[in-house]
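Researcher: Good morning. I'm working through a list of sequences from a screen, and I'd like to move beyond sequence-only analysis. For each chain I'm collecting a predicted structure so we can compare shapes side by side. This is the next one on the list. No need for commentary yet; just the structure.
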Amino acid sequence: MRWFVLMCLAGLGGLPVFSGCSASPTRQTQATPARLSAIAEELIELAADDQRYEQLVMNNEIPGDRDEFMATKKRLMSVRGQRCKAIFDEIGFPDYEMVGQEASEAFWIIVQHNDADPVFQERVAGAMRGAVERGAADGSKLAYLTDRVLINTDRPQMYGTQLDYIHEQARAIPKELGDPAGVDARRAAVGLEPLAEYMNGSSELFFMMNEGALREMGVTEPFVYEAGFSAW
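Model: Good morning. Structure tokens for this chain:
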């Protein structure tokens, strides 16, 4: 049986400085305002395309053959990732000061979804840290990307943003998590809700996206963690 799951829609104490990545790299500022404006427009369009595909999956509205759709989705994700890499090589991390918040976060979500290139994800995370320290990027989004890099390179995540599911319970669980006892403190430090709340919302979405199949299995509602749950 095939299951629908979300890719991930998301002080810096505890954020790692990845090896080979400067925490505050030199920003490249040679681009003209007109060039930065053009980059911003392109990033917003690329992210809108990314989200169209994600929304079709989320709503169980995949047109035509599912395998063909997913292959096209994967191919276009790679194309968008390559464009982001070219932009990164040209101007560095496109932070709020350079391209505005909407375009900067558009860049982030494309990189976040481009799991085929964890090396580039890690480069961006290292550069993004400096932007967060200047107030020119969102620390919670850096936390999501940090976890993505760690999981994609076989290391325990720090914030519990990356998920697995126990299907027969409609239950979201975090992938491997380092120092589980401290996770809520780390999440609070970057503006994220407690992990149990995040897991409950994710379980609800999983149930919504797979309700027909789950009801056939006898699952009639999503799993709910009690407030304050911490036995991760």
